[in-house]
Structure formats: structure tokens, C-alpha cells
Amino acid sequence: MVLKTKTDKKKEQKPQTIAMRIFRVMLALTIILTMFFSVVNAVYTFRVRAMQAELILSMTQNVHNGILEPLHQITDETTMTATEGNAKAINRFFTTCQSTVEMLGIAAERVYKADEPAKQDIMLPTMDSKDTIYRLNAKGFDITNSESRHVLEVMSRLRNVMEANYQTNQDAASIYFASTAGFTIIADNQAAAAIDEHGSAMTFDAESRDWYIAAVEAGEPVFSSVKTDYFTGEGMVTCSMPVYAGGKLLGVAAIDIRMSTLNDYLSTNSVKGAVITLVDGEGNVELSSSEAGLFGLKPDEQKNLYDCGLPTLNKILENAAKGETGKETYTLSANGEELTEYKVEDLKKMSQEEVDAYVEEALDSTNYEVYYAPIPLVGWSTLFVADYSELNAQSQKMITDFLTETTEQLKSTNQFLVRAIIVILIVFGVLVLVLYFIAKLVSKRLSEPIEELTDKVQCISGDNLDFTWDRTGTDETAVLAQSFSDMTKKIRQYIEDLTTVTAEKERISAELDVARRIQADMLPLDFPDQKELKLYASMTPAKEVGGDFYDFFFIDEDHLGLVMADVSGKGVPAALFMVIAKTLIKNLAVSENKGAAEILSMANKLLCEGNEEMLFVTVWIGILTISTGEMDCANAGHEYPIIKRLGETYQVYEDKHAVPLAVVETVKFKEYQMTLQPGDVLVLYTDGFPESTNEEEELFSLERMLTAMNAAPKDDPKALDDHVREEIAAFIGTAVQFDDMTMLTLCYYGNNGEGNDHGAETE
Question: What is the pTM of this model?
């Protein structure tokens, strides 16, 4: 029997990893600390919350039982009754005013139908006029016109009715009838206000006034909001209604109500510490018994109570707009914000800082109660707003005593919390010291291998990729060290491979650069002086070399060949096929003296031979007779040309299509004729233009291309080319170009001789 030594048993044990060692230590510390702080925090939190709950409950009961409940019982019913009575009185007053207007409208209709002129016209006011009935003319009123004169004579019979209504309704500022004939009859004692600085009667265009327009649009009596009077500058509310006879509009009858009259209704119900306010259905304050405060309104001022942003006030305005009667209570803090009411259960959930902030706001807050009742005829409401802190001195004293008691209780609570915080800080400090020494001891035993590994890794830089590890073990540090050793070996091999690949890539890049220059040199770059036309062309490959090409060449002195083509595919194969196709087409066009379709047919047969890669090329070819503008054309699957006739816009010319070259050897290409007139422009292009794509994978499209061309400078092929490319660049942004972009533009002038040499270029 072989006895195992301690060393042998130690070797057989599974080595502990760094993660396991740290986990066991931290787990033990976490359990101990969590249990300790949970117990301490629970004890102190429950004690603090209990005290806060008792304090807030006491505050709530004192306020409710000692102040609010008795005050509500005394004032609530009487205040609501007064508010409703005030609203009804104002509504009756408005009803009386509306009845006066309706009576005037009936009288005006009867007078018009009777068609009997008055014995005396109603005259314009003068400086010494003391008459309570007078008229004002609109700018366009012509008294010499027989029809206008007759209407004035007939409607002057309203004198007695209007004077009687004015005398019996002294609360009205003015009663008047505005005729569609261009004059207004007015009954009031303010004729002097209608005299201008020259002593003449003012003109008054009633049909442009808001009260006139509103009445005609409504077709029934309407009340305006508070407006400034045209003559006196006083605040007025106008009740107006349209008057018809036999379906014909005769004019508008109206009555002005001074705001001072309505203010008398508010003053008779005024109470110290309360504000009475009239608001319309939109929340606008029309009149107030006070100029200060939230509900106050200064003269010539406008105020909307919705702008105050108080939730309870918004609720009041919404209920009032519905014609409801009721009462709401809200509390404002010292900074004018509405103070939220909390229940005891809610306060228990709040932090100490939140409770302190709430108490602080409550100390400086003011309670308001708002009673509201509707004025249904005009869609307004009466608001009676009471500040009960000013109405009841005994209540104020009770609040003061209550807040003093609360403050003392809060001080005791704060002292208790301070002592609790000090105890927690002391305990926390002791725990920090203990954890510090434990962590120091543990980190020393665990960090030495990591520090050695770090030093060795830091030595790896530049050409020094040597790494060795002498320690034994199977923990994470040893595994990481072995990984670094393997990594340095792979990096050395990668550098060797990268050097070889880089050299090969530089060689290929140099060859492609030479190919690009050769391809660019094959495209015609200069155009001879030619008075009959202007020509410009450009080609931008998507890769180092491309498959697009253009060509233009003289077949003889009077014939110019134009070619635009696009080879399938990209890169070197497309570029080689492009060279072959370009050479064949040009040679056949110059040497064979054939038509456009025959040239494509011969080129197609030659390109089909040995086309193992199955490449093809779309081609548009045209042979222009320079002297006449006639052109023989053929299209082998290429984009439609674009043409702009003199004085018109750029349009797509949908010509006859056939399959591309090098697809079907026996295909027959169709030839068609096109005639260019002096001033016409012909544009040839490849699909790289309309199919340019932005980052959202949206195509530039042929429609956008036509729009860009129509916005380009006229009669300048290079400017046209540049403008279209700029529009595409702005459209695609940072998106990568995936297709070659080639364009050729021909401006034909014929015998007008306006052409210049613009050459061509390849980008």
C-alpha cells in the first residue's frame, strides 16, 4: 500500500481559479454587509416614517377640523347663492339689450316695407348739435344718388323708435342702425365725439366693423367680446343682429353696452378679500372687480386664464364653458404654483427632502375657493374668487399656532435623523477600514501573476514580438499568458503575409492606374472649331476603369458620328470589351459609309464571335448631317435620348429599341431619322445618371434628371453637364457610386453659326 503525501494530495486537487477566489471573498463580504445595512436601515426608516405619518396626520386633522370645516359651513351656501344671482342679473341685462336690438330690427323692416319717406331727414352731427339722433355716412355714400337718397328718407322714420328706446334704456351707450345703403343712424348723447378736428362729421364704414360682419355671418343676434369704441375709446360690448326684408339684407341693428355698466354689477356684490371676474368660453377675462392678482384685469389689458397653467383653474374654466355651476378649491404656493394635496399614505412614501419641501410650501401657501355660474346668453361665466386667509382672522390665528407646533415637531424629527445619520456614518467608516485591509491582503496574493503578465505584455511593441511565460498553473492567468504567446506567433506570420499581399496590391493598383489613363486617352478630348454646333462630353467610372464610353468623329466634312454606349459589368473586363466595341463601331462608321442600323449589325456580328464571358453592350448611334440637321439613328438597348427643342423644355425622345450588341448574332436593328433645328439640344447618357442612389436607396430618377436639366444654364453643354452632376452629388450625399456615369451634350445651331469649341473630358 502506497501512502500519499500532502504534496501528492495537493497536486491531485483541482486548482482554484482567480474568479473563484474573488467570488468567495466578495460573496462573504456582500452577505455580511447587506444583512447589517438592511437591519440598520429598516430600524431607522420605520421609526422616521412613523413619526412623519403621525405629524402629517395631526396637521391634516387640525386644518380640517379647526379651520376649513367651520369656515365652509358659514360661507359656502351664501357665496354660491350670491354668485348665481349675480350671473342671472347680468344675463337679464344682456337679454334686455338683445330685446332692444330685436325691436329696432322689426321697426326697420316695417319702415322699409312701408316705403314712406320721413318729413325730415336725419342729419349729420355739427359742432353745436344737441340732437340725440344723428347719422354718419360711409366713405362711398352719395346723397345725390336718387336711390341712396330715397333709402335715407325712408329709414329716417326710425327717429322716434330709436329715441324712445334710448331714453328708456339709459344703460346703453348707443343704439344704431347701419344701412347697406352706406349710412348709419345713431341714437346717443355723444354726437360731439363724431366730429373731427376740422369740425366735420366723421365717416363711418360700418360694414368693415367686427360686430357688423359677425351679425351677417351668424344671421341672428350675436354679442361681441369687449372692444374699444370707435369714437370714445371706452370698453364696449356690442349686441348686433342682421335685418332682412323679402330676403334682402337691409342692414344691421346694434346696441353698445359700456363695460362701466357691467362693472356696477360686480361692485354691488364685492366682498373684501374676494374678486369677481367675467370670463368668456375661451378663458379670456372680459371684466374684473380688481386690477391686481391672478384674476385681476387692468384697463386696455388682455388676459387668458388658461395661460396661468394651473390644473384646477383649467378644470374650472372647462366646466364654466359647458354652462355648469359649481365650486372648486385650490392652493397656491408663494411662487404662484398650485400646491398638490397629499394623503398620509402618500407622504409616507416621500423622502425627507420632499416632505420638508412640501411643508415649506404649505407655510407660505394661500387657499382659494372659486364659485362659478353661467351667463348663458353670451356664453360667459361669473367667477367669485375668495381668499379665506383674509376673511377670517380667527382662522389665521389657528393656522399660525398650528404651523408653529408643526415646526417644533419637524425640528425634533430632524434632530433624530441627524443622530441616526451620524451613527450610520461611523459604522460605515469602520466597515470601510476593515474592507480595505482585507482587499489589500487578497489583492497581493492574486495580483502578482497578473502584474508579471502585464509587464511582459507591455514589452511587446514594434519588432519585438517575443513572449515567454515561466510560471506553472492552470488558472486564467496561465491561460491568458499562453494565448499571448500564440498571438505573437500569429502576428509575426500575419506581418509576413501582409507584406507580400501589400506588394502585390500596389503592383495591381499601378497597372489599373495605367489602364485608367489608357482608357481616358481613348475617349476624344478635343473638338475642332465648328460654328454650327457646340459639343461637350464627360465620363466618370465607378471603379478604376469603367465600361461606359462615348465617341464623336467626322465621317466627312458634313457628317458627324455620335456614339453613347454602356458595357455590362464593371472593372477591367468591361473596360477591355469597351475598347473593342468602341474601335469596331468607329472603324465601321468611318470606313463602310453605312447607315446607323447597318453599322450596329456589322459590329454585333463581330462582337458575338468568341464572347465566352457573355458580355454585351448597349449602344446609341447617330450620324448627323451638319448642314441640314438631319440625323440617322439606331438604338441597341440603350437609354432613350433627351432632346430640347428651341423655346421648350428637355423631354425624353422615345425612339425605337433593339437588343444590345453581342447578345443575338442575327438580330436586325431598326433605323430612324431625327431632324435637329437651330437652337435644339440633344443629350445622350448612360443609366448611371438616373439610377444614382442615395443612402436611403432612393433612385435619382429620370424625372429629377429632367428637372435639373431644365434648371441649368441655357446653350452651354458644359454648364448643363456640371449642373446635373452637382444635383446628383447633393442627392446621393455620402452614398457610394456603383455605376459609371457618362454624358454627351450637343447644341445644334445650323447655319446660324453660334457654336464654339467646348471639348470633352473624362474625370
Answer: 0.43
